[in-house]
Design brief:
The complex is a heterodimer of chains A (660) and B (269).
Chain A: H1 2-11, H2 24-34, H3 44-55, E1 58-59, H4 65-68, H5 76-89, H6 95-99, H7 106-112, E2 116-117, H8 126-131, E3 137-148, H9 153-156, E4 165-175, E5 179-187, E6 197-207, E7 210-221, E8 250-253, E9 263-272, E10 275-286, E11 288-290, E12 297-300, H10 309-313, E13 318-330, E14 335-350, E15 360-374, E16 377-385, E17 390-401, E18 404-413, E19 434-445, E20 448-459, E21 470-484, E22 487-504, E23 507-525, E24 530-543, E25 550-564, E26 567-578, E27 585-586, E28 600-601, E29 604-615, E30 620-630, E31 636-637, E32 644-645, E33 648-659
Parallel strand pairs in A: 1-2
Antiparallel strand pairs in A: 3-4, 3-33, 4-5, 5-6, 6-7, 7-8, 7-9, 9-10, 10-13, 11-12, 13-14, 14-15, 15-16, 16-17, 17-18, 18-19, 19-20, 20-21, 21-22, 22-23, 23-24, 24-25, 25-26, 26-29, 27-28, 29-30, 30-33, 31-32
Chain B: H1 2-21, H2 26-30, E1 58-65, E2 76-85, E3 88-98, E4 102-116, E5 119-132, E6 136-150, E7 155-162, E8 179-189, E9 192-201, E10 207-217, E11 220-227, E12 232-241, E13 244-253, E14 257-268
Antiparallel strand pairs in B: 1-2, 1-14, 2-3, 3-4, 4-5, 5-6, 6-7, 7-8, 8-9, 9-10, 10-11, 11-12, 12-13, 13-14
The chains are: A mainly beta (660), B mainly beta (269).
C-alpha cells in the first residue's frame, strides 16, 4: 500500500503532465465568505466542497433548479430566473447570454460562471465511458507538507511517536462527469504513519436510473441541516441574506482532511418523474473515550490527533452504524418537499451526565423539509423529530429585486435534541438548546450596498452546570462602496450582547457581556498585476460584572502581485495588540490552495506571511508559504505540550499540485 | 548643572528614542505627522521613502530644532539631499541628536520608484549609532519601507513600515521601534487637504493623527494638526519663494510643553 501511495504521489506527477485549472477566483470568493469566521479552526471542508463543485461543473442546458441551487449564493428565485431565460432562448451557449438575465446582479453572475458549463455536452453512459479506453481521464494530485520551525515542548521531549511534519496527499481520477475516484491520506504533526488518516471514494454519476452512487466515504446534506449536514456551513456574517435558506447538495463524495463526522459505506440516489429518492448506509469507528467502569461513552473526540499512547488508545474505539432514506418531490419552479428517515446506533451507550448529553445508544430522526416560492416570496424550512423532541427552522425571504431583499428566520432546537451529524443555523454549534429569531436585510444603492442583520437568541440551559436560561442578541451593519472599478471601501460594525455564566464569590451568576467590533477596509487594484488591501479593526469587550473592560486593535497591509499568469505572490504584515485572549482578533489569511488559516491574534505582536505560486507549462504547480508570529514581550508561546521557547513562531509550507 | 545633565540623560533614554523615531520636518510636525500619505519632499527619506519617487528636481533640505521644550540637550538636526533619475530617485541623509553624554547619529540612503501609475514604492536603509559616555557606542543597520498610492485624484493613501528588519541595538529591548503607519489624504476642496493617519508601534497603543493644510496664497500654506498617544497639537506655516521653501512649526506636548522647529528646502535645477 505504501509503495502504491509513493508511486501515486511522488512519481506519477513527473510522468503525467497537463495544465492546472486556476483556482484563484474561487479562493478569493471563499476568503470573502470566511472573513467573518471567529474561530481559528481551519475551514478546510467547505473549501474542499467548493473545489468539488468546481471540478464537477453543472451543464447549464441540462440542469434543474435544484442542481443550480447547489452553487454558492444561488437561491431558488435566481435558479428559476436562469431556467426561464434558458428556455426562452432555447439554451444558453455563452457567458454573455447569462449576463443578459435581468434580476440577477452582475456580481452574482460573475460568481456563478465558474461553476457552469455552457453549450451542449455529449453524455456518456458509464459503460460507454469504460469502453472509450482512458481518453479524457482527468488526474489531479495534491501533495503538501507543513512544518513548524520552532519545536514544541512535546517534540523536544520526544513525547510523540512521529516527526513534527504535517503531510497531506490527495489523488482524484475522474472521467467526464461519469466516474470519479478519490483518495486522501494525512499525517498530523507527531503522528507516526503517513496514512494515519485515509479517506477514499468511488463516485458514479448519471448511470442508468442512478443519479449518484458513492462507495466509500461521503456526506449527506438534507433540508436545512437539522438531521444531516456536512461539517461546514456559512455562519452569520456580511452575507446577511444568502446564508438562508441553505441549498442541500444531497450526496457528496467525501475527500477532506477532517477525520470525523463523515460517513463510510454506500449512498445512492435516483430520479423518478418529479421524485428524487436516496438511500445510504454507513459503518465506521470514531475516536472517543469509554468509561472503563460503566463501559459507556463519556465523549467523542473530534480533533483527529493520534500522537502519543494516550491519544492512540482512544483511536477508533466507538462503533457507529448509520442508515437512512430520503424522498423529495419537486414542484418545478414553485419548490420542493422532502422527507428523511435516518438511524444512528453506537457500540456503547452514552453517559448521560447533563441535560445536554445524549442518552442510550440508538437515535432515530424523522425530518421534513420544504421550499416554496411565490413570485418574490420564498418559504422554506425543516423540522426534525428524534422521538422525544423537535428541532425546527423556518424562513421567509422577500427577494423584492436584485437591489433589495429581506429575510426572517425562526429556529427552535430542543434541549434534548442531540445529533452528532446535524449542523443547523444558530448562534452556537450543535443544533441543540437554542431558540432564536433572525432578521436580515440587503440594500443596494448608487451610494453603495448595505447589509444588516439582527439576531436574538435564547438558550433554555445556560450551561451544563447552570440549568437556567440565558439570552442574548447581536446585530451587524456592513457598508461597502465602490467609487470606481479599482477601489472598494468597506465598513463593518458588530455588536453582540450575551449573558454568560461567571463565578463571583464562589457563586455561579449570569452576567452580561457586550462585545463590539469595528472594521474598516480598503481594497484597491493598482494595476493589472497588483492588488492591495488595508484593514484597521477594533474590538471592545465590556463585561457588566467587576471584570475589567478589554480592548483589541489590529492593522494590516496586504499585497498581491501577479506579474504573469503563471506566477503569483502574496504578502501581508499585521500589527496587533489586545489586552488578553478574550479581546482577540482574527484575520483570515491567504494560504496554499486547499488550506484555510484564521489565526487568533492576542497580546502584543506582529504577524507576517509570504506566499508564492508558480504554474509550470506542463501541469505542475508549485506553491509555498512562510509565516511568522513575533511577540516581543513573551518568553514562551503557547502552553502545555505545544509550548515554544522564545517569542517567535514560524511555519514553512510547500505544496505540489498536478493535473492531467 | 551637572545633575541637570544627568536628569536629561535619563529623559533622553526614556523619551528620546521615541522622539528621534518620529518622522521629522517642520511641515510634518505642523501636521502632527498625519501626512504619511503625502510625503513628497526631500525629508521623505526619513518620513515615507515612497515620497522620493514623487520628487522631480534636486532638493537639499535642512531641519533644526535648537532646544525642544526649552532643553538644548534634546536638540536635533537633519540634512538631506535627493537626486531624481529616470529609474527612480536616490537620497542621502544625516541626522544628529543629543549631546555629549548621549548622542545618536543616523546615516541613511534611500531609493524611491514609481511602480505603476499612481503607485510609488521606496526603501530607506539607515545606520544608527548610539554613543553613551563611559559606556561606549554601538551601531546597527535597519530598513524602512513605504508606499504611496493615489487611489483617486482626490484620495491618497500611504503606508510606512519602520525597521522592518526588527534590528535592535541591545539584545533584550525594542530600542529601535518597529512601527506601522497607515495614512490617508483627502483633497476634496480646492487648496485644502485633510490628512489622517494611524501609527502602531510595538508595545504602544495605536496613535491617531489628524492634520490639515490650507493654501491661503500660492506661496503661503497654513497647517494645523493634532494627535493622540501622547496627546499633542501643532500648527505651522510654509512659505515658498522661488527656489526656497521655509517651514516653521510650533507643537505642544501634553507633558513636555511647547516647542518650535524650522525647516528649509532648496530646490535645484
Amino acid at each position: 500500500m505504501k509503495i502504491f501511495l509513493c508511486y501515486v504521489f511522488f512519481i506519477l506527477p513527473f510522468i503525467l503532465i497537463k495544465a492546472q485549472a486556476d483556482t484563484t477566483s474561487f479562493q478569493n470568493k471563499l476568503n470573502d465568505l470566511l472573513e467573518d469566521a471567529t474561530t481559528d479552526k481551519e475551514g478546510v471542508e467547505y473549501y474542499d466542497l467548493v473545489e468539488y463543485l468546481l471540478q464537477n461543473k453543472i451543464v447549464i442546458n441540462k440542469s434543474s433548479i435544484k442542481e443550480l441551487m447547489v452553487i454558492p449564493n444561488v437561491d431558488r428565485l435566481t435558479a428559476a430566473a436562469i431556467i426561464r431565460h434558458r428556455n426562452l432562448l432555447g439554451g444558453l451557449n455563452s457567458e454573455e447570454q447569462l449576463r443578459a438575465i435581468e434580476g440577477i446582479s452582475p456580481e452574482l453572475i460573475e460568481q456563478i460562471i465558474p461553476f457552469l458549463i455552457f453549450g451542449d455536452t455529449k453524455k456518456f453512459s458509464f459503460f460507454d465511458s469504460i469502453q472509450k479506453s482512458f481518453e479524457d481521464i482527468n488526474i489531479s494530485i495534491r501533495s503538501r507538507t507543513i512544518n513548524d520551525l520552532q519545536k514544541e515542548k512535546a517534540f523536544k521531549e520526544n513525547k510523540y511517536y512521529g516527526s513534527d511534519f504535517k503531510f497531506y496527499n490527495r489523488l482524484i481520477i475522474s472521467k467526464e462527469k461519469t466516474i470519479r475516484l478519490g483518495i486522501l491520506t494525512e499525517k498530523d504533526p507527531g503522528e507516526q504513519s503517513l496514512t494515519d488518516f485515509t479517506t477514499f471514494h468511488i463516485a458514479i454519476k448519471e448511470s442508468g436510473m442512478i443519479n449518484n452512487l458513492v462507495l466509500g466515504d461521503f456526506l449527506i446534506e438534507f433540508g436545512q441541516g437539522l438531521a444531516l449536514w456536512s461539517r461546514y456551513s456559512a455562519g452569520k456574517g456580511i452575507e446577511t441574506i444568502k446564508i438562508l435558506p441553505r441549498s442541500s447538495n444531497g450526496i457528496i463524495p467525501y475527500l477532506s482532511s477532517d477525520e470525523n463526522l463523515f460517513l463510510r459505506g454506500i449512498a445512492a440516489d435516483f430520479n423518478f418523474a418529479n421524485f428524487n429518492f436516496s438511500a445510504f448506509a454507513s459503518s465506521r469507528l470514531l475516536d472517543g473515550n469509554i468509561d472503563p467502569v460503566t463501559n459507556k461513552i463519556s465523549s467523542i473526540k473530534l480533533d483527529g490527533l493520534h500522537r502519543d499512547s494516550s491519544e492512540v488508545a482512544h483511536k477508533r474505539i466507538i462503533k457507529e452504524n448509520l442508515f437512512g432514506i430520503t424522498a423529495e418531490y419537486n414542484f418545478g419552479e414553485i419548490g420542493n418537499f422532502g422527507l428523511l428517515f435516518t438511524n444512528f446506533s453506537y457500540g456503547n451507550e452514552f453517559e448521560h451526565q447533563s441535560l445536554l448529553d445524549p442518552a442510550g445508544n440508538n437515535f432515530s430522526f424523522i425530518s421534513t423539509s420544504y421550499n416554496i416560492s411565490f413570485n418574490k416570496v420564498g418559504f422554506n424550512g425543516e423540522t426534525s423529530y428524534n422521538g422525544k423532541s423537535f428541532a425546527t427552522i423556518n424562513n421567509v425571504d422577500f427577494s423584492i429585486d436584485k437591489n433589495f431583499a429581506v429575510l426572517f428566520s425562526y429556529r427552535n432546537y430542543a434541549t434534548e435534541y442531540w445529533n452528532l451529524h446535524s449542523n443547523g443555523f444558530g448562534e452556537k454549534d450543535g443544533t441543540q438548546n437554542e431558540i432564536g429569531f433572525y432578521t436580515g436585510l440587503y440594500l443596494k444603492t448608487d451610494l453603495g450596498s448595505l447589509s444588516f442583520y439582527y439576531d436574538q437568541f435564547k438558550f433554555p440551559i445556560a450551561s451544563d452546570k447552570f440549568p437556567f436560561p440565558s439570552k442574548g442578541n447581536g446585530f451587524l451593519i456592513y457598508y461597502s462602496f465602490k467609487p470606481n472599478i479599482n477601489l472598494e471601501m468597506r465598513l463593518k460594525y458588530i455588536n453582540k450582547l450575551k449573558e454568560t455564566v461567571t463565578t463571583i464569590e464562589n457563586q455561579f451568576v449570569l452576567t452580561n457581556l457586550r462585545s463590539q467590533n469595528i472594521r474598516a477596509e480598503l481594497q484597491y487594484k493598482l494595476s493589472k498585476y497588483i492588488q492591495m488591501k488595508s484593514r484597521i479593526e477594533f474590538v471592545n469587550i465590556a463585561p457588566s460584572s467587576s471584570q475589567p473592560e478589554e480592548k483589541g486593535f489590529l492593522i494590516f497591509q496586504d499585497i498581491k502581485y501577479s506579474p504573469a499568469t503563471y506566477l503569483a505572490f502574496n504578502g501581508r504584515i499585521i500589527f496587533f495588540r489586545s489586552d488578553s485572549y478574550n479581546s482577540r482578533l482574527y484575520e483570515f489569511e491567504n494560504d496554499l490552495v486547499g488550506v484555510m488559516t484564521n489565526p487568533a491574534l492576542y497580546g502584543e505582536g506582529i504577524r507576517w506571511y509570504f506566499t508564492a505560486r508558480y504554474n509550470t507549462n506542463f501541469g505542475l504547480t508549485l506553491s509555498m508559504k512562510y509565516s511568522e508570529l513575533f511577540k516581543p514581550n513573551e518568553k514562551f508561546l503557547g502552553s502545555g505540550d505545544s509550548m515554544i521557547n522564545g517569542n517567535l513562531d514560524n511555519r514553512l509550507s510547500f505544496q505540489l499540485d498536478f493535473q492531467l | 548643572m551637572k545633575q541637570c545633565k544627568y536628569v536629561f540623560s535619563i529623559l533622553l533614554l526614556c523619551f528620546g528614542i521615541s522622539f528621534s523615531q518620529e518622522p521629522h520636518g517642520a511641515k510634518q510636525i505642523a501636521l502632527s505627522h498625519a501626512d504619511i500619505s503625502a510625503s513628497d519632499d526631500v525629508f521623505s527619506i526619513f518620513n515615507n521613502p515612497a515620497g522620493m519617487s514623487l520628487i522631480n528636481n534636486r532638493q537639499i533640505g535642512f531641519f533644526y530644532s535648537p532646544a525642544p521644550y526649552g532643553v538644548k540637550e534634546l536638540s536635533y538636526a537633519y540634512a538631506t539631499y535627493c537626486e531624481p533619475f529616470s529609474f527612480g530617485s536616490l537620497s542621502g541623509g544625516f541626522s544628529i541628536y543629543g549631546y555629549e553624554l548621549y548622542k545618536e547619529t543616523n546615516f541613511a540612503i534611500g531609493f524611491g520608484r514609481m511602480i505603476a501609475p499612481n503607485f510609488y514604492l521606496g526603501l530607506t536603509a539607515a545606520y544608527r549609532n548610539i554613543s553613551i559616555k563611559n559606556y561606549g557606542s554601538k551601531g546597527v543597520l535597519f530598513i524602512n519601507a513605504g508606499t504611496i498610492i493615489k487611489l483617486t485624484n482626490k484620495i491618497g493613501l500611504g503606508i510606512l513600515l519602520e525597521n522592518i528588519t526588527r534590528s535592535k541595538i541591545s539584545n533584550d529591548s525594542n530600542d529601535i521601534p518597529t512601527v506601522f503607519w497607515f495614512g490617508l489624504d483627502l483633497n476634496l476642496v480646492k487648496d485644502f487637504i485633510f490628512y489622517t493617519a494611524i501609527k502602531k508601534e510595538l508595545n504602544y497603543n495605536p496613535s491617531l493623527r489628524l492634520g490639515a493644510e490650507y493654501s491661503i496664497l500660492e506661496f503661503l500654506k497654513l497647517r494645523i494638526g493634532a494627535g493622540s498617544e501622547p496627546n499633542n497639537y501643532s500648527s505651522g506655516i510654509g512659505i515658498l519663494y522661488q527656489f526656497l521653501q521655509a517651514d516653521y512649526s510650533i507643537s505642544s506636548h501634553a507633558d513636555l510643553g511647547v516647542t518650535h522647529q524650522f525647516g528649509l528646502i532648496i530646490f535645484l535645477k
